[in-house]
Every structure is written in C-alpha cells, then in structure tokens.
Amino acid sequence: MPVNLQTPAADALLPINGLLLGTAEANIKKPNRKDLLVMQLAPQATVAGVFTQNRFCAAPVIVAREHLASGKGIRALVVNTGNANAGTGKNGLASALVTCVEVASLLGCEAGQVLPFSTGVIMEELPLERIIAGLPSCVADLREDNWFNAAHAIMTTDIVAKAVSKQITLAGKTVTLTGIAKGSGMIHPNMATMLGYIATDAAVAQPLLQRMVKHACDASFNCITVDGDTSTNDALMLIATGKSEALAITDAQDAAFDKLQAAVTEVATLLAQAIVRDGEGATKFITIKVEGGKNIAECRQVAYAVARSPLVKTAFFASDPNLGRILAAIGYAGIDLDVQHLKLYLNDVLVAEHGGRAASYREEDGQRVMQQSDIAVRVLLERGTAATTVWTCDFSYDYVKINASYRS
Amino acid sequence: MPVNLQTPAADALLPINGLLLGTAEANIKKPNRKDLLVMQLAPQATVAGVFTQNRFCAAPVIVAREHLASGKGIRALVVNTGNANAGTGKNGLASALVTCVEVASLLGCEAGQVLPFSTGVIMEELPLERIIAGLPSCVADLREDNWFNAAHAIMTTDIVAKAVSKQITLAGKTVTLTGIAKGSGMIHPNMATMLGYIATDAAVAQPLLQRMVKHACDASFNCITVDGDTSTNDALMLIATGKSEALAITDAQDAAFDKLQAAVTEVATLLAQAIVRDGEGATKFITIKVEGGKNIAECRQVAYAVARSPLVKTAFFASDPNLGRILAAIGYAGIDLDVQHLKLYLNDVLVAEHGGRAASYREEDGQRVMQQSDIAVRVLLERGTAATTVWTCDFSYDYVKINASYRS
Q1: Among candidate residues A221, A247, A277, the one where a domain is terminated
Q2: B137-157 pLDDT, tens per residue?
Q3: Is residue B31 exposed (0-12), middle (13-18) or buried (19+ Cβ within 10 Å)?
Q4: Of B308, B323, B406, the CB nearest to A123
Q5: Which domain CATH number covers B123?
Q6: B56, A406: Cβ pair inside 8 Å?
Q7: Three-state secondary structure along B297-319?
Q8: Which residues pair with B377 in a beta bridge?
Q9: In the predicted model, what is the mean pLDDT of residues A216-227?
Q10: What's the angle, vertex CA B244, arms to CA B242 and CA B245, rounded to 5?
C-alpha cells in the first residue's frame, strides 16, 4: 500500500497554457485501461530532459535523445505503458521512429519534432499496430485539463497516479507548474527515473531549461531507490510553453531563474518521493540523511548502502529496531570510516556512537520510531561538512509477490 | 529450502590429526542448541586467515586479526553463535579478550594464542558470563571426530550444516582436508564470508598458508552473494596441523603447494556454494558466468549487477523467463558496453544478441530452463579474454519472512 500518498483530485491539477494532453485505451498489454498518451506543445515551447545511463537503454530513449539534440523544436511527446521497447534491437528502433512518424502526421509536424517514451516489460516486441490504431483517439482527446488522465495513462505497477501542481509569481506574473511521474519498481535512477514530465507556462531558453532539469533531477529523482535496479527507460522531461505573462528567462543570473528552478525542484522532489511512497510493496517511507561527510559522493555512498540493504529494508518492514544492520551497511559502504566518530539517529533517538550502542539508547525508543510509517535515519560522519538525503522504502512480501508475477 | 544441499553424514567428515573440536549448549540466544565451539590445535600447527573489510567489523575480528599477526603460534579457536559482538564498542573488545583469556587458562596456553569468532545479532552486548560458563563443557568434549557437531554449533539462520572432507596424495602420502562454514543471510563477502574453517593435516609454512587461503577465498567465498549485505563478522581460517606424513610445504614452487592449494580451493568452493544453496529463502541456485571481458574487475561488475538485482532474483523465484531484467542489470553494471556485441545464454539457450532477443529464442526454451533448481546464466561480453563466475540464489517470500523476524 502506498505510504501516505493519494492521487490529487482531477481539479487540483492545473492546466498549463500551451500544452494539450490526450489519452487512449490501446490494449497494449491489458484491456480496459488507459495506456497511451500524447502531449502537444505550442510552437514556441522549449523542452529539456535527462535520460537513463543504462547501456541497454530503450529504443525510445535513443530516439528521444536524438530528436531533442537536433534542436528542431519539439512539438509532441508520445508515451505508452505496457511495453518498454527495450532490449528489442533494430526492430525496436524502427517501431519508436514509426510511432513518431504517425504522431507527426496526425499533428502536422515533423517526425523529428516528436519525442517517444515507453515503459513496461523488457525484451518483448512493441505492439506497433495497436499503438498506431490508438493514436487518433489520443489526438481526438487532446485538451489542457487532462493531466489527471495523463498521470493514469503512464502507470505500470503503480497503485497511485503521481501528479502535482504549483504556482509561483515571477516579477508579479503568475507562473504555473504541473508534473506527472510513474514508477514503482526497477527504481534506482541514474540521471532520471522511469518517466517524469513537468510542464510550466513560463518561457525559458532551452539551455537554461536543460540546466534546470538537471539540477531538479539531481536533487530529486537521483536521490531515490526502491530496489537498486536502474531502469532501461528512465526519462525526466521539462517543458516550458512560454504562454504565461511572465518575462522570458534568458539569463541564469536572473532572479526568476532561481525562483523557477526552486519550484521545478520542489515539484520534482514531490514526484520522486511519490514514487518511493508507492514503491512496490512499500509499507514505510524512509528518509536517509547523511551529514558531516568529506564530500557529497561519500555521503551518497553511505546513504545508498543503507537504502539498498535488503536486511535494513526487511527490518523496517517488520518494525523491528534491529539497528545493527544499519551499522553493518554503513560499514561496508566502502569509505575509510573511523566508526568511533560516527553517530546514528532514528528520528530524534540517538542509537549508536563510539562504535557501538549509545548508552542512552533504549529498545522501546527504537521500537516507537520503527512503528511509524514515515521514518528518518540520520548518520553523522563527523569528518567534513558535506550532506545528502536519499529516500527509500521498506522491503515486504508484496515486493516479491509483485515481481514474481509481473508478466502474468 | 536449501537447493540440492544436504549435510554430510557424521562419519563422512574426516578427522584432522592434530585438531580437536568440542561444542556446548551455552544458552547464548536460544536454549537447547549447540552454540559454542572450541578448536584446539597441535603446537606445530600453522594458521592463516582473511577477514571482513566491513569498517564496523566485530570486536572478535579485531582481536583475531591482531592475535594472528602477532606470530605467537595459534593454539585454539573459539566460536559462538547467537551474538555477533559487533557494534559493541569497547565493552565488546573487552568481552572478546576475556573469552580468549578463559580459553587459554582452560587449555594451558596464552590468551594471544587464541582466536575468537562470533556470529549472530549485531549491536547487542555479548552474554559473556554464559560463554565463560559454557567453555568447560566445550573443553570436556574435545575430540578429533567432532566436525559434525562443530558444523552445527556455528549455525545461525542456516537450515543445513555445511561441511566437506577431501583427501589428496602429496608425493605418495595421504593428506586430509575438512572444512565447515556457516552463513545464509548478510552474505556478500568482501575478503571472506561469515565463518569458514578449513583444516588439513599437511604441514605448510605460515606465509604460504596465508597465500593459499587468500587464493581459495578469492575463488570461492568472494564469488558469492545472497543479499548484497557484507557481514561485520566474516572470517575464513585455514589451519595446517602438520601431522600427516607428507613433507612440509615451504616453497611455493613446490608441486605440492599447487596441489594442496587446488584442494583447499575446491573445499572452499563447495562450502561457499553450500552457503548460497542454503541462502535465506533460496529455491534456486544460480551460477553467473561472465566471459570475454577486458579484465576480471569488469566481469565481476556485470556478474554482481545480475546477482544482486532483486528483479532478476524474484523472476528466478517465479520461474518466469522475464529475461529482459537480466539485460537491464547488465546495462546498469557501470561498464561502457556496446550492447550490440553481447550474448546472453540461459544454460544452453541463446536468449539475446545484437542488442535484443535472439531470433532463435523461444519462450518455452527459457521456461524449461527457469523451472530447474540449478541454473546457469552466461554473459559473453566479446571484448576481451577475462572471465569470472559468481554464485547466487533467488529472492523469495521466505527471505523477507526470515529477515522480518530474525530477532524474535
């Protein structure tokens, strides 16, 4: 069950002027569910994105990366769930390109102006004919107030659709941001996670938009893990339609750049956390803060060692303060740690110091924290000033159940 | 359930001349089970060992490493299960030292000639009084034909006791080897695994014995993973009592060195594989061979990415040939792979080539292999001549069950 997470009401998701969305039931893997999404962008819109670093990256990732780099001006995005079109060789590339051609012909733009995305099972042929057959329904459905359906149309094992809206003011003008994401398993992003789309009606020059999406991703999607498995299809896209009344952002020194970047990062962080809260089989949401490191890299090493440990994750599932497992994970993280100087906190409870259990630690205090559904682990390395935060979930029977039956 | 693994019969385990073993029920964690083991060595015996690289290594690991390095000649080993004496700070160190003092006083040697070992729950105080109370029973029980009980006395979540014997001939003289090991979870060794003890009646100079144990460990315990968690207490010890009639091995150029090293490595490999076959919740034993790499390091990176992936491991549990998950794991292993040149086999079935599913691959062939309990994954990188093999098991409901209830 998702941990303290609900889908926002449809009317809580704010339309973005200059961006239309349309969904369809294309029967890609299962009948009677929305599984195809088209987004159409106003001509002046800018788009930036980051993609998975998995060497077996999916065919649509290869195509989207090329189309984005060509600088032609992106006019549409097309997303299917139910099939990842990854590990599909040359046929997979052809299918991704044909999908772009079909969308372009329906919307009256060039194929190179369309970005394709897929998510679902790996190493199975994309059912191209069903996608082509479904595209006209998507186009017929195109409208601005369709984010709620769009968030549902990209889900795989997600239980809850992930979406968030936010408004800020730039020099007196209102700017709106809405984002959606999907992902629940195979979540250990490296550059970006499964699929995330954030749009704003602000106007942002493309190089600045790229900088903004990289910044937001590093602070959000690149700080989460469900199972340590980096997907073949990860992509986070940031779209700026330029339809708000706010002045265009063309200079990173501009105060509006910082303000918008902070808002984008906030939306990305909420979406990334939503993915963890809806992590496959999750019953606990765990925030791991590592402070006092020599640099961020070593803080991340320690945080991810804890976040990935199946023993730590099953202890959280059991609400069992078997906290020696956290020490063990810190110990094998691969940094030349002096354990005498380390402090471990669970929420506000000091658990370990001087290389062992803290004198003040009481089992019942650990037990009290472990029974909560939102838990913070705080590790003080006390050898520098760097810090980082990583979000993860516990490891339950249901993770195994979901992944032992994913294809059926 | 352990995968194709049984404890050998008590009389299949060969005594090692010059090594006595005694066990006791010391009530360390649970009543009515052997949980304490003393091994007494003949005066001329040499001992070598490798220990965990976990920075939160246990107090007994610190003490054993120091005593071994002091060169005083080791006369005894003492092992308790039920408590790891790790994450226990200065008190833990004192408890490990007191244990050595007690053993030394019972056996008439120096405390510095005793190596202590512990395994069990982390960050809980060692129940020193119970250990001290149990030691006289161990000493009263000392005998050569006691390996079967010794193998049982070091178990934690192990279902099956792990032990193996082997005889070889060195220049016409018979040499015997017997080894025992424990471990089932928190298995991702880095230098050695949980606890392994291999003894031979051969005579081997200590520096050569050290070289032999390092070689054996690198080819066995350092090639397995159950859950990716490196223990705080890993140790593999190799003991040579020098009681056989074979000539002492004092030169690594000696043919007998190679022959004994090969036998030690074989025993170590069988014990390491036994740990995986009895991996927590295991239903499948999986051999991952990576061939054609530029170097062994990158082969290991790929093999461990596959071996650690929860998605791959749950697919094996489900006997589901969802083999795209293996491609995804290879893809995120972190090497600059050209996926066009990679080939993936499941046993003798070619699954993937040219960046996607092999034209000859049939789902029913994958299904047939997945239903077996011993499965080989073979990855051909085709960019060099290096190769490696890693052994792992699947990920089942029972792994979660065992680790969500380990302390209770």
Answers
A1: A277
A2: 999 999 999 999 999 999 988
A3: exposed
A4: B323
A5: 3.60.70.12
A6: no
A7: HHHHHHHHHHHHCHHHHHHHHCC
A8: B288, B346
A9: 82
A10: 115
Of B230, B336, B352, the CB nearest to A123: B352
| pLDDT attached to residue B195 | 84
- Residue type for position A387: A
Average pLDDT on A227-255 reads 87
Residue B111, phi then psi, degrees to nearest 5: -60, -35
Statement to judge: residues A177 and A310 lie in one domain: no
pLDDT at A406 > cutoff 70: no
Whether residues A225 and A336 fall in one domain: no
Same domain, A379 and A257: no
How does the average pLDDT of chain B come out, rounded? 91
B330 CB near a chain A CB, below 8 Å? Answer: yes
Interface test with B, best of A57, A184, A327, A400 (most B CBs within 10 A): A400
**Could you tell me if A165 lies within 8 Å of chain B, comparing CB atoms?**
no
The answer to whether residue A397 neighbours chain B at the CB level (below 8 Å) is yes
pLDDT at A191 over 60: no
Strands (E), A54-191: 76-83, 114-121, 162-170, 173-182
pLDDT at A229 over 80: no
Percent of chain A's residues with pLDDT above 70: 98
Around Cβ A248, how many Cβ atoms within 10 Å?
Answer: 17
Is A359 at the interface with chain B, CB within 8 A?
A: no
* Cβ–Cβ contact B90 with A under 8 A: yes
Q: Please say which residue of A277, A299, A334 terminates a domain.
A: A277
Check whether residue A166 and residue A305 sit in a common domain.
no
Q: Which residues of B are catalytic?
A: 193
CA distance A227 to A307: 9
Residue A4 covered by a domain: no
Cβ within 8 Å, pair A407-B320: yes
In-domain check, residue B246: yes
Mean per-residue pLDDT, B278-293: 93
CA distance A278 to A329: 24
pLDDT bracket for residue A190 (50, 70, 90): low
The H or E element spanning position B198 is strand B195-200
> Is residue A178, in this structure, part of any structural domain at all?
yes
Instruction: Give ipTM to 2 decimals.
Output: 0.79
Same domain, B65 and B114: yes
Does pLDDT of B395 surpass 70?
Answer: yes
How high is the pLDDT of residue A195? 84
**pLDDT at res. B224:** 78
Q: What is the CATH number of the domain that holds B340?
A: 3.10.20.340
Q: How many domains does chain A have?
A: 2
Same domain, A267 and A306: no
Is the pLDDT score of B408 beyond 60?
no
- How far off is chain B from A358, nearest CA to CA, in Å? 9
Distance from the Cα of B267 to chain A's closest Cα (Å) equals 27
Which residue's structure tokens are 């003008």? A173
Handedness of CA B345, B347, B350, B356 (dihedral sign): negative
The answer to whether residues A174 and A290 belong to one domain is no
Domain that residue B185 falls in: 10-277
Q: What is the pLDDT of residues A289-341, one digit of tens each?
A: 999 999 999 999 999 999 999 889 999 999 999 999 999 899 989 899 998 99
B84 touches chain A (CB under 8 A): yes
Would you say residue A194 has pLDDT above 90? no
Instruction: Establish if B141 belongs to a structural domain.
Output: yes
Number of CB pairs, chain A paired with chain B, less than 8 A apart: 230
Q: What are the catalytic residues of A? A: 193
From chain A, pick out residues whose CB is under 8 angstroms from the CB of B324. Answer: 84, 86-87, 121-124, 232
Same-domain pairing of B80 and B200:
yes
